[in-house]
Amino acid sequence: MGDATVRTPERRAEAVPHPVPEGTGRGLVRRLRAPRRPRLWFEILLIAVSYWTYSLIRNAVPEQRSQALRNADWIWRVEQQLGIAVEESVNHAVNSVTWLIIGMNYYYATLHFVVTLGVLVWLYRSHPGRYAATRLVLFATTGVALVGYYLYPLAPPRLMNGEHFIDTVMVHQTWGSMASGDLKNMSNQYAAMPSMHIGWSLWCGLTIFALASVPWVRVLGLLYPALTLVVIVATANHFWLDAVGGLMCLAFGYAVAALWYGKLPYALPRVVAARRRAWLPTRA
């Protein structure tokens, strides 16, 4: 007979695999990456503080008027060479329909915030497992946009010299933009590149399209950024290329989330299972 291996209770306890403590570096990273159910009070506080910080930094960027106007002239020339410089024609055409341009002014001023917050609330309630990762996309997109505002000041078309763009808010006396009229001092006038109206609306649209179960709602999700693109051009707040900048920022945001979570946010579980504590056997 072969030798029998006798295990004492002490040796059996030593043979039990011990999980990596959450306090270690590897355990902490794993814990942060794991989808979890969001906490309402924390999310409200985080969004409020983040938007306040974003506004503070965006408006603290020096308003480099001369450079911003030179950059606008350069953008306009590039678009003319590419054959896509139709912003002025769109601006004048839509401005000739009073009810339409007034509606677009209010669209520009309000839906940018209302729809984005609405999608965040919907994610929180219906897709808690995907909420944190999708929110990370939005935050990373906005964060890299701040770098763009600092490095590349750009005047919107309505502020260009020597062109004939119409500032539709001033003409129609509507509260359509915080960069015009009585509210112009509350916002950096030369932070047009990239367009976060496009970055945020695309984030909303893609999220709705990927996660909504009702077909017509998914279609609306795709129409929202398309309509936003028309609005930002018709109101002379952005060039087409500003929208391209917003798209690139959004791509960066998705890349950050995919690297952190190992997959795109929409591929994560819809709900988060209740966390369990692993109790190790104790010796008497």
UniProtKB/TrEMBL annotation:
<dbReference type="GO" id="GO:0016020">
    <property type="term" value="C:membrane"/>
</dbReference>
<dbReference type="Pfam" id="PF14378">
    <property type="entry name" value="PAP2_3"/>
</dbReference>
<feature type="transmembrane region" description="Helical">
    <location>
        <begin position="219"/>
        <end position="237"/>
    </location>
</feature>
<dbReference type="InterPro" id="IPR026841">
    <property type="entry name" value="Aur1/Ipt1"/>
</dbReference>
<protein>
    <submittedName>
        <fullName>Phosphatase PAP2 family protein</fullName>
    </submittedName>
</protein>
<keyword id="KW-1133">Transmembrane helix</keyword>
<keyword id="KW-0812">Transmembrane</keyword>
<feature type="transmembrane region" description="Helical">
    <location>
        <begin position="106"/>
        <end position="124"/>
    </location>
</feature>
<dbReference type="InterPro" id="IPR052185">
    <property type="entry name" value="IPC_Synthase-Related"/>
</dbReference>
<feature type="region of interest" description="Disordered">
    <location>
        <begin position="1"/>
        <end position="22"/>
    </location>
</feature>
<feature type="transmembrane region" description="Helical">
    <location>
        <begin position="40"/>
        <end position="57"/>
    </location>
</feature>
<keyword id="KW-0472">Membrane</keyword>
<feature type="transmembrane region" description="Helical">
    <location>
        <begin position="190"/>
        <end position="212"/>
    </location>
</feature>
<feature type="transmembrane region" description="Helical">
    <location>
        <begin position="136"/>
        <end position="152"/>
    </location>
</feature>
<feature type="domain" description="Inositolphosphotransferase Aur1/Ipt1">
    <location>
        <begin position="74"/>
        <end position="255"/>
    </location>
</feature>
